[in-house]
Amino acid sequence: MSIYVTQGIILKRKIYRETSVLFHCLSEQFGNITVIAAGSYKEKSHFTGFLEPFNLLNLELYKNTKSEIYNLRNAGLIETYLNHLEYQKSLMIYAAGELMLQIDSPQDDGPDLFKLLITYCHYVNSSEFHPYYIFLRYILRLFTMMGIPIEQNCIQCGNERIINYDLNKNGFICHRCLKKTNIKSEPLSSVAESRSGYNEYETNIELSPETSYTLRNINNLNVLLDYPLQKSTIRETKAIILMHLVTLFHKQFHLNSLRDI
């Protein structure tokens, strides 16, 4: 039996065999891991209140070398990120965790992904900017860190005034370059409603002016401070995130945490 010590942030938890808790967390040392906290659901457990989503913990773990699941030996609460947080900010934190649970990341990336998520949770809690703008920046940085960046300018000429998203090339296109192609353009909503096969469409997807403006300025949030976030921008950027992942990983992804915004 080996003992491991690391920090971890809980992404999801559930009751296991009536008296225990099974939770998934992003750990600093090992990336995404699954942990069983035996007896922690009992009324007098000293882990009561610790094992909640988006609590940051010091973890002391052990496991059999043949098992992929860790066992909790001890834990100490460092910080909680959902305590008294307004609803929209909570949704943005849950969305980041939901996506992280679906991504198979190498263990070597664990420290960087852990640091990025912790920084994101802190910023959502403290920032005056709309939390969805912060979420978009987090996703763009996450994709870059994973080696699957989304180029925010036109993928053909570098123009920043993008108006379309190319499903086959996984990138944005400006009006001038779009005119040079024979591929038709459709509203993104007509494609985004489909839950699969995003990369099979022979089309470019129209972006609303609000989405184009948001993406051009997402790395300079001061520009967006007084810019009203449109539902069309949420719908379109959410679909682009999912289509990007589906095309690259060839499996379905979801962001159910964002259904209510």
Commentary on this structure:
- The protein is of the alpha+beta class.
- Helices cover 34% and strands 25% of the residues.
- The chain contains eight helices and nine strands.
- The strands form two sheets. It has a five-stranded mixed β-barrel.
- Helix 5 links the parallel strand 8 and strand 9.
- Helix 1 runs parallel beside helix 3 and helix 2 runs antiparallel to helix 3.
- The chain is elongated and about 65 Å long.
- 31% of the residues are buried.
What is this structure, in a nutshell?
The chain is of the alpha+beta class and about 260 residues long. It has helices spanning about 85-100, 110-125, 130-145, 175-180, 190, 210-215, 220-225, 230-250; strands at about 1-15, 20-25, 30-35, 55-65, 70-80, 160-165, 170-175, 185, 205.
How large is the count of helical segments? 8
Kindly report the average pLDDT value: 87
Q: Could you spell the SSE succession in H and E letters?
A: EEEEEHHHEEHEHEHHH
For the largest beta-sheet, the strand count, sense and barrel status come to:
5 strands, mixed, barrel
Distance between the termini: 46 Å
CATH topology of the largest domain: de novo design (two linked rop proteins)
What percentage of the residues does DSSP assign to strands (E)? 15-25%
Query: How many structural units, i.e. domains?
Result: 2
- Estimated helix fraction: 25-40%
Coarse structural class: alpha+beta
Radius of gyration of CA atoms, rounded to a whole number: 20 Å
The CATH top-level class label of the largest domain = Mainly Alpha
Name the overall outline: elongated
CATH architecture of the largest domain: Up-down Bundle
Give the low-confidence spans.
Answer: 193-201
DSSP strand count: 9
Q: Order the strands across the largest sheet as they lie in space.
A: 1-2-3-5-4
